[in-house]
Design a protein that fits this description.
The complex is a heterodimer of chains A (626) and B (302).
Chain A lengths: L1 E8 L6 H11 L5 H13 L8 H4 L3 H6 L6 E6 L3 E8 L6 H9 L3 E7 L6 H12 L4 E7 L8 H18 L3 E6 L23 H7 L12 E3 L2 E3 L7 E5 L4 E2 L4 E5 L3 E9 L8 E2 L3 E6 L10 E3 L6 E12 L11 E5 L2 E14 L6 E2 L9 E14 L10 E5 L6 E10 L31 H8 L4 E6 L6 H14 L4 E5 H4 L11 H20 L3 E5 L5 H9 L6 E6 L3 H7 L4 H6 L21 E3 L6 H14 L5
Parallel strand pairs in A: 1-3, 1-4, 4-5, 5-6, 23-25, 23-26, 24-25, 26-27
Antiparallel strand pairs in A: 2-3, 7-15, 8-9, 9-14, 10-13, 11-12, 11-15, 12-14, 16-20, 16-22, 17-18, 17-21, 18-19, 18-20, 21-22
Chain B lengths: L7 H20 L3 E4 L4 H14 L7 E6 L5 H14 L3 E5 H6 L17 H11 L4 E3 L16 E4 L27 E4 L7 H11 L10 E8 L2 E4 L13 E7 L10 E3 L5 H10 L17 H8 L3
Parallel strand pairs in B: 1-2, 1-4, 2-3, 4-6
Antiparallel strand pairs in B: 5-6, 7-8, 7-9, 9-10
Helix pairs in contact in B: 1-2, 6-7
The chains are: A alpha/beta (626), B alpha/beta (302).
């Protein structure tokens, strides 16, 4: 027997409470005393029928006003499955409750009154369900008894809703014609709609695949609590957010980046040989590290993004509007840090899906924002990982939860880039060829590798130290599990650029081809290190133009000519001075130094390791590597 | 986690409850666990042991004693406390009455159930508790269906159902101002059936009151009240010996027995599966009005 969490959305008029009452009643989850209480209440209210809606409208105000105020949870079970229903109201002013109910649901039931067809509200429910990443959506077209059990009407509504849902990218959408009042196709098959050959609602709920939303790949273990009964035992308690871990496996602790090995996966019932997503366990490690609540334990070759600039979709859940100057508490996994809303990108009109420009959000507003946090947050995109991609904002004065957020990525993401670079027309194109979008998006590759792609372009005179620095840097990055590629001058001149010499024209073509190659490796998700003298500004600018903003880092290895000539590792300067080499940069060919490189390195009198350490720190500062 | 590879839903519920308890331990400074001696609070202690193993439970156990107890409950309580090495604090309704904090109900059927709320709030204040863990479940009663896992109470210990904090994903917000406290309900998503199945899977020891036995009772307003020092007969009533068991255990004056021959966990599970009455149906305190539970919760009831 397994467990399905579902949410229902719709207003009282759609017959939502009646549907839930029907599910509970027909699965014998309602008891006689509850039913009697409802019968009594229905009689006292002068209603001529047993109002099943009264079973679910729990608060006095709701019964009096015939509305549902808050999320209510209902339980029923069949021999196959236990069900938890988050029953949420459908009125616009209760968007926050729908978000609450949908946040843990794996399936959403959206109710449509067959007489009214697809209303704005039905679309809003679909939009919110897809936004919250609910993998399965069931549209129950209710009150079929009031449209003469008409197949045509059912098809009409299903077609209209499908058109809308296609725009949202809903994976699994099912339509079921029902009558909640009479029970048709809820638990028992309808005798009135022989044209319908699909499942009843309950049958569908019992057989839909559960656990589809779980990320079973990326191991993430937010530390909740440290169990320390005595000096000899230190257990890091938490629930596996995603992926799995076994004793003996290597782990890295964030933010310290210290690595160690899992010694045991402990529970009250004995040690486990594996902890999987959803399991509450305690991990012990072979080395004694300083690990505390808010830290995240992950695998060395599969890291989440760490950033302080977050691009997110949020729903404002508080009556107090967003304040630009307020430093909210941001809570994500077991971590908490101060944060402020840096920029409101747009608000989404949930009825039309239009994007509105606004300055701030008010209760029930949904939209996209940029958030800046005081401490880095370790996250995955919400679409890939609900557990590590979700957060709330808490007001520091009232302590209320004022927003629920879903992370889209770091603030500069490929989502912001045009599908094809504007420089397209400047690049040579073969005849009769049309640009096709990349098959696998860069963001997907980055999610898989756990780091961002980048091009780090080293420029400087021959002998300035570009290659030595880049080789050390690549090794350092590679050891953290990053995908890297180093393109070096001498390598590319064997083979792909072997037909080129050293005239200014050939140098330009050389750099053009290298820029294109770097862009391809970049698109494959790698951190590409390019070490080329690349003496001309225009050539470097062109290579930069192939890479999205923020992802191309120009590193000027600024070693004076005298020093380079003194080192003369390859003996080139000596040859040039003897006139044996034409077009030697710095001697017989100009070097145009960068005017504003991202990073400038001095090397005179320094060890390579020291320079690389310095460089790594600055690359981290730029958010290029972690 | 041994329980129930066959009962995957119980494994998920267990993990969720353990998660909530660990959040409570991490986010609060002076947590207490309300222990009534009933099956839900025994389950709570069991889950708390799992959550913090091999350490001891980091919660002080608090029993609000109405003075109207079944002696089996107290014996069981003391044994469990000794076994787990937990600390126990008893808040006494009798003491609240003697101190003049509350007044005993008049009439033939005085219940101390309502008086518990004052003793509870006084006790929490005395202990400076910032959170009280309870075994409440959402399936028990309509008003409980809207409870959060972490339920905020104002400085007067009151619950405002219209102004609850949204509880999204598994992100529990326990931030509070001085004087405010929380109730935490780790069993929110369990049903009575889940509780019994889990107790059977895990072989958790339960008080004998839950199993069928012979007992002198009187039927009043559809409830079977047990003979005790606190339940007196009304004119025309007579004690009758019946084969009964209790589905919930609370104050002896208002907890009714049901006729039952279920004497093993398996038989209880079969009986729960076939039951046509809620477990609280035997409790006259919930039946006083349609919104009885909501009103008591607003005032600060468990």
């Amino acid at each position: 027997m397994d467990l399905l969490r579902l949410s229902t959305a719709g207003s009282v008029d759609d017959g939502k409470s009646t549907l839930i009452g029907r599910l509970l009643y027909d699965t014998k989850s309602i008891f006689e005393d509850q039913l009697e209480a409802v019968e009594d209440a229905s009689n006292r209210r002068g209603e001529g029928y047993v109002n099943l809606a009264l079973l679910t409208d729990g608060l006095r105000a709701e019964r009096e006003q015939n509305i549902t105020i808050d999320v209510a949870y209902r339980y029923f079970a069949t021999p196959r499955r236990k069900f938890i229903i988050a029953d949420t109201p459908g009125h616009i002013q209760y968007t926050r409750n729908m978000v609450t109910g949908a946040s843990t649901a794996e399936l959403a039931v959206i109710l449509i009154d067959a007489r009214n067809g697809v209303l704005t509200q039905s679309k809003r429910h679909g939009f919110l369900s897809s936004l919250l990443g609910i993998p399965h959506i069931v549209v129950a077209i209710n009150k079929m008894d009031l449209v003469d059990w008409s197949e045509g009407r059912f098809e009409e509504i299903a077609d209209e809703y499908s058109d809308f849902a296609n725009k949202l990218g809903v994976d699994d959408l099912t339509f079921i014609p029902i009558s909640a009042l009479l029970g048709d196709n809820v638990v028992d098959e309808s005798q009135n709609m022989p044209w319908y050959h699909g499942s009843t609602l309950l049958h569908h709920l019992e057989h839909v695949n559960v656990g589809a939303h779980r990320n079973l790949v990326d191991f993430r273990f937010p530390v909740q609590y440290v169990i320390r009964p005595d000096q000899d035992y230190r257990g890091y308690a938490g629930r596996v957010a995603s992926g799995a871990i076994r004793p003996g496996e290597e782990i890295v602790v964030l933010p310290s980046r210290k690595s160690t090995t899992v010694a045991s996966v402990d529970t009250f019932d004995g040690p486990l040989d594996e902890a999987r997503a959803g399991d509450s366990v305690a991990l012990t490690t072979t080395d004694e590290l300083d690990i505390s609540r808010g830290d995240m334990i992950v695998r060395p070759l599969n890291l989440p993004t760490a950033d302080t600039e977050i691009d997110a979709t949020i729903c404002w859940t508080s009556e107090t509007p967003m304040e630009p100057d307020t430093h909210y508490w941001l809570r994500q996994t077991t971590r908490e840090t101060k944060a402020f809303v840096n920029r409101v990108v747009y608000r989404i009109d949930v009825d039309t899906l239009h994007r509105d420009e606004v300055k701030q959000f008010e209760l029930n507003d949904i939209g996209r924002v940029h958030i800046t946090t005081a401490q880095p947050v370790f996250f995955d995109r919400y679409q890939l990982n609900r557990e590590t991609g979700s957060f709330v904002l808490v007001d520091p004065h009232s302590n209320n939860t004022v927003a629920a957020g879903m992370i889209r990525g770091s603030v500069v993401t490929v989502d912001d880039l045009p599908a094809a670079p504007a420089e397209e027309q400047l690049r040579p194109v073969s005849p009769d060829v049309v640009w096709e979008a990349w098959n696998i998006e860069l963001a997907e590759r980055e999610a898989l590798s756990g780091h961002r792609a980048a091009v780090i372009w080293f420029t400087g005179l021959s002998g300035s130290g570009k290659s030595s620095i880049a080789r050390h840097l690549e090794r350092r990055l590679f050891e953290t599990g990053a995908r890297t590629m180093l393109l070096d001058g001498d390598q590319v001149r064997h083979g792909i650029n072997g037909d080129l010499g050293f005239t200014p024209e050939d140098r330009t073509e050389n750099i053009r081809r290298i820029g294109e190659m770097a862009a391809l490796f970049f698109r494959s998700g790698s951190i590409v290190l390019c070490t080329f003298v690349s003496p001309f500004r225009a050539d470097r600018a062109r290579a930069r133009g192939l890479i999205p903003d923020g992802r191309f880092v120009e590193v000027f290895v600024d070693t004076p000519l005298e020093e380079c000539e003194r080192r003369d590792v390859k003996g080139l300067y000596a040859k040039a001075r003897r006139g044996e080499i034409a077009h030697m940069t710095g001697i017989s060919s100009p070097y145009e130094a960068p005017e504003s490189p991202e990073i400038r390195l001095e090397t005179v009198g320094r060890e390579v390791d020291d320079v690389v350490e310095d460089l790594l720190g600055r690359l981290r500062g730029l958010g290029v590597v972690r | 986690m041994s329980s129930a590879r066959k009962h995957d839903h119980l494994r998920q519920l267990e993990s969720e409850s353990v998660f909530v308890m660990r959040e409570v331990a991490a986010q609060f400074e002076r947590p207490v666990l309300l222990f009534s001696g009933g099956k839900d609070s025994i389950l709570m202690v069991h889950l708390a042991r799992k959550a913090f193993y091999p350490a001891r439970i980091p919660f002080l156990l608090v029993h609000i004693d109405t003075g109207h107890n079944f002696h089996e409950t107290i014996e069981f309580r003391d044994r469990l406390v000794a076994e787990t090495g937990a600390q126990l604090h008893v808040g006494s309704v009798q003491a609240s009455i003697e101190a003049g904090r509350v007044k005993e109900e008049a009439g033939p059927n005085p219940s101390r159930n309502g008086l518990q709320t004052v003793t509870l709030l006084d006790t929490l204040q005395e202990l400076k508790a910032d959170v009280a863990l309870g075994g409440g479940r959402r399936d028990e009663e309509k008003a409980r269906a809207k409870e959060r896992f972490l339920s905020h109470r104002d400085r007067f210990g009151q619950w405002d159902p219209k102004n609850q904090r949204p509880e999204v994903w598994n992100l529990f917000n326990g931030r509070r101002s001085p004087g405010e406290h929380f109730r935490a309900f780790p069993l929110s998503n369990w049903t009575e059936m889940d509780v019994w199945q889990y107790i059977a899977d895990e072989e958790i020891d339960m008080p004998s009151l839950y199993f069928s036995h012979r007992r002198r009772v009187v039927e009043r307003d559809g409830t079977l009240l047990a003979e005790s020092d606190f339940n007196r007969l009304l004119p025309g009533e007579e004690w009758e010996e019946k084969t009964v068991r209790f589905r919930t255990i609370g104050d002896a004056t208002c907890t009714g027995a049901t006729e039952s021959t279920a004497s093993t966990l398996e038989e209880i599970i079969a009986e729960v599966a076939a039951a046509r009455q809620t477990e609280r149906g035997g409790r006259s305190d919930d039946r006083r009005s349609e919104a009885a539970m909501e009103d008591r919760k607003k005032q600060g009831y468990f």
